[in-house]
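Dear colleagues,

As part of the handover before I leave the project, I'm documenting each prediction I ran so the next person doesn't have to rerun anything. This entry is a single chain, and its sequence is reproduced below.
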Amino acid sequence: MEPPGDRTGGSGFRIFRSNPTALIAMPKQHRLLSELTSIEQQLSQLVRGPNVFTVDQSNATWSPPVDIYETPESFILTAEVPGVKTGEIDIKVINGNLILRGERRWESDVHGEHFHRLESAYGKFERSFSLSEQIDAERISAELEHGVLKVILPKRLKAESKQIEINDE
């Protein structure tokens, strides 16, 4: 089974010019490091005892997970950005790259209480994707609903074939 980012959708074209497995390798490494950190925290908690809770605040930035799929008319990119408002997201196409930037802010007004566990990530994020020539950058649109950013990347319209007549002189 091929990885989700490596599908051509039967069209023979890829959404990315660069190697899609390179894009997939980074999140896998990040996931592996996160899992190792989680195991380390659980072992530390076992050694210290069951009533000790810690909050890991070492992650100042985060990267929203992204899914990309293809329809007959377009490619669809979805990014999970819970708690991020429309005005806190910036989407641009620069030099053939789709760039998603934003920030999820910490907005807790809890006074006199202590967190026992904080797993939500906060801070700035930036994701960049190389666009294929198959995508019509002028018609890209986006919407944000229930914490999911949906970017619609329309395919260029196919030129219809045309018979050209040869004129006699």
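The chain has one domain: 4-106+114-154. DSSP finds one helix and seven strands in the chain.

All the best with the project,
I.
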